[in-house]
Specification:
By secondary structure, the protein is mainly α. The chain has one domain. The protein is about 85% helix and about 0% strand. It is built from 19 helices and no strands.
Length: about 500
Amino acid sequence: MAYSVAKSLFKNTAVMMGAQLITWVSGFVLLLFLPRYLGSADYGKLYLAISIQMIFQWIIDYGGSGYVPKEVSRDRENAPRLFVHTALFRSALWLMSIIVSLGLCMVAGYSWRVTAIVMILSFSNIWSTMTALLRSCFLGFESMKYPSMAAVVERSFLMLTAVPALLLGAKEIVVASLMAISTLLSFALNARFLKTIFRVRFIIRWDIMRRIVREGFPYFLWSLFGIIYYRIDAVMLSLMTPPSVVGWYGAAYRLFDILMFLPAIYSSVLLPILSRQSKSEYDSMRSTSEKSMEFLLLAGIPIAAGLIFFSHNVIQILFGLAQYGPSAILLQLFAIGMLLVYTDSILAGTVVALDKQRPWAFVAFLAVIINVGSNYFLIPYFQRVMSNGGIGAAIATDLTELFVMLSAVYLLPRHFFTKRLSTSLGKGVLSGIVMSLVIVVLAHLGIPWVIRAIAGPAAYAGSLLLLKVFDPHELDYLMRALSIRNLRQVMAEKGGLNT
């Protein structure tokens, strides 16, 4: 990976990570309060409504998170026209989604409370989709200052209002309303600073609209199928199991979702860079993709191992085992899927950057069939055998991610990755085994789990160093990148959160 590319990746990732740390704290606090104060049944209703809302949000977000930043990165002069026409098309989709979401609630026979939450969140989708569009434009310009600030404001507002509301006895409808307001604040801030990258020109051309619809369709299919197989499990659980099971599943999935922040941020920053490189710097693109894969998987291995060994402790601290004990095994299953998601995030960006979005959309279609089919058989089976249909839904998620990974590898050119990646990942797996052995031995000796949770990752890091996974110049760059002086410079150059 070229130094200039690594520097760009680090700077934009650092800015977004700075914001993510704050939003992660907010999400973590909400995770402590929502399941406990709403209870597993009411939390299940809220999680169901959020899942339905997210399905429709991704339908409205035509082109997904790939088309707009990819096109903007390649032709920034065309960004204002792309923004206006995409916004108009998404607004039309939003109007249709309101009618469809209401019809879904009626057909499914959901209670009036669930329907009310769905409609509140559905109405907020209009500013949610505009926020996503604005973020995509900023990302295409590789300037994530203001979207990061807006994300901080959004999550901080939600935490500072929802927690007191829960303490005062508020129910899920109030929480949904506060969620809607928080996304409106994020939209307002992103829109306020759009002029820093370009000026909006309201000139409508139907040929541009047709091109956006045509070229964005493969990305739309991938986003649509992707969000369906990520969220359809909650809908199917609601139809096949009691609300408490949906609550157990939602609690574990929310933790799984939070731990996806690293690949989500990194892959979003990576896509515009890979898109530019794919046109004239193919070898550089291969190197960038390979190093990114290595970085994410080496970071994900200890996180996945930690979830497997300490899931019961995590659930006990966050939610209490009395109501959410069955969430522990779900979290362990999601730990396996987490490594697959880390892999798929890089593979997906590479496939899209190589302009293979059409076959990638077909992969997504097959993934939905696999996911829905697996859920259809596995949810009732595990509900009958273990009284926890969420186990079946979690297994279905892992199987789907495995299929996506194998399909992405198939779509890439032959020998796209070098043997160095296999060697590095092999050393990472070996280090993960060392970490696991340390945790098991310490557990056998009766060492408290908190100490084991510290000793395990320390052993993992030490093993990576002993096995010389990183080259000396990579370690040198990493040390310089993480120095206090450089972090301050990054915040200053990119307009960090303190500006």
